[in-house]
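Comment thread on ticket #2218

A.B. wrote:
> Attaching the input chain for the structure job we discussed in standup.
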Amino acid sequence: MTEPAEPAAQRRPRKRVNYGTGREALLNAAVRVVARGGLRKLTYRAVAEEAGVTHGLVVHHFGSRDALIEEALTHAIRSSLRSSALEPGTGEAADFSTGLTEMVESGPDAQAFQYELLLESRRRPELLPHLRALYDEYFDATRRELSQMLPGPVDQGLSRMVFATLEGLVLHQLVFGEREVIEDALDELRSVLRLLAERRDGDSADGDGTSSDS
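C.D. wrote:
> Ran it. Output below, let me know if you need it in another format.
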């Protein structure tokens, strides 16, 4: 015996997405679906249900699941770059990544989505070129800011070490919380960068022959 149809009054109403901002709303929905269930849960229907729109609208906007994944990843990473203060542009260590903990707290799904894609790329190498191209934006932003902060050239090893520290702190906060501990760790990182800047300044002065023995 079939179950009676759910009365219309009891059905969950669909959320309405404004057409002008619908694409971003669908990308955010895709990020949430993957953050909660992993990439295997990402389907047109799951995104449509999460966003409260029709299955056909998701197909219309993206055309393929791979296109949806790539655009959602681009959206997540560029949103993180805007909100993390990774590149404040001041060249001051005190300003470096000041928005990092707030970014994680206010948008944990976007961060979880990125880690899910990183791990999935080990199983699906075809994801790696797009991931690498987008992560290069993180690497470049870190290097540009360090170049303003520190005298002399900033090599790839230093900029990657600093970014890896930030990424590890994001993962720690995402899993364990402990925002205050992460803030303390960021303060320590900024102190190290200030000391490095002072040391390089001193080395530059010595190299210019301005010591008292000259």
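A.B. wrote:
> Thanks. Noting for the ticket: The chain has nine helices and no strands.
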